[in-house]
Description:
Number of helices: 14
Low-confidence stretches: 360-369
Amino acid sequence: MCALVVGTCATSSANEADEKTTAVDDIFRDYAKAGSPGCALAIYRDGAIIHEKGYGLANIEQGTSITPQSVFDIGSTSKQFTAASVLLLEKQARLSVDDDVRKYIPELPDYGQTITILHLLNHTSGLRDYLDLMWLEAINFDSVTTDDDALQIVVRQKALNFARGSDWLYSNTGYFLLSVIVKRVSGKTLREFASENIFAPLQMTHTQFRDDHTALIANRALAYVPNEKEGGYALDVSYFEQTGDGAVHTSVEDLQKWDENFYTGQVGGTAILAQMQEQGKLNSGKVLDYAKGLFIADYRGLRTVRHGGSWGGYRAELLRFPDQHFSVACLCNRGDANPLEKALQVADIYLGSLMRPSEDTATVQGGPGAATPTDEQLAKVSGTYRDVTTGAMARVSVRDHRLLAYILGTKAELRATSPTEFVTESAPEIRLIFEPASDGAPKKMRIASGKAAAAEYEAVADYAPSAAELNAHSGDYASDELAVSFRLGMVEDKLKLVAILDPAGLKRSGGVPLNELRPALVDEFELNGTAVTLHFARNVEHAITGFRLDAGRARGMIFTRHTAAERQ
């Protein structure tokens, strides 16, 4: 039929393309406002860029617009290039992913169990995240830091988050250490190795691992975060020089060449590219959603291979639908951007007819058909909850006839889908399911997201110590693992982290906020507004001797209380 009415078919096809382009523009409409940073977008299909555009400003001061050629720091989206570099070295028979990491980094402590390169690639090593450790040491993230700085803090750690291979926890430490291994095995920095073996062969001429904070980068988009004090935006770029866990700077046009390599195998061959996408396993045999620098999951019935990134004011996403030979790259220079959400919305426009219908909006997103719990029903599920595995605390309260949750230092407004099930406003895929108390057991809460195992919480009684009981925890506590001391003291009848001290006793600023320590249980406190929990220890005389600190991806650091003589 089209052969007889070519003009009509061509017009119809053009109209459809125009409609999709308009729909995509609508997704980024807020980012195209005057004076706003924004995003670069590119859509790849069957080996070609079928749509690309820039939204917003690459440089607010100069009024420079974002284009598809703008270069962004892609944060953790970089990890796939680190993984590929390691696998290329294995292909060259210069290492094996089954090698003990200490073969190449002997200064890493012996934890009594062999941690392999594969454990680093899959985030199953149990190594504490060095970024969390730097934050706890009050290292200002606006400072210049190097490989030596990062390695020094890693090798001071005396314990793991968990036995290697027994669990999965995203760890930037693993990928930073992979960059060290690449350098020690190849004799070249990761920047040099990746340039020679990946970027140059693929003609990714605007892509590099940035390991020199003074280096100039052509077409670089600066990054910004909302300025809460004065309005507008504030500059937020990184001066870190260590690589592996991040630091790739690239454009959406260059990323198309890398994305297409997963189909052609030009660099690495099909075996390495398949190996990169092989999902990891725990010791138990459980298969992970994480492969090597890539997340593997389904979205509305279609297989996806993806990774996002977040560093400073940069946000990034490279989302691939391999069975449809379709990908979306979204690179942003504003810290409040959500490029994964944007990329999925773009994919809905182009692949929606192939996708499984979305779940019932009323049920999942709290739409018009969702139940509206009464204040009495909300009060029944509010309270303080404790993660039965990690010990992390969550507080759920009623405000303005709705639930508000504080989980791992993050505030989340909840929307009801039933009297006992809720989703978070910012991420409707995260569900909170409450179970009433029964048979003398406390009420429970589960937090579920996608296919990941739900986190189990149990309700605990609120603890309200007296000022005298709080004051018993005041004092200076030192950690060899973090090379700092925490000073706790009373401020207006509240226990507070009042200072962080370096080994010379000088105060540090930056990193952990000097906030109130809120009592959760007896001898257990949360640092307000953070995911930090302090578990105090006592001796046989019931005197406090120190505490164990848990903080997100770094758990179990030991602090010992100073005596009065030691403080002088």
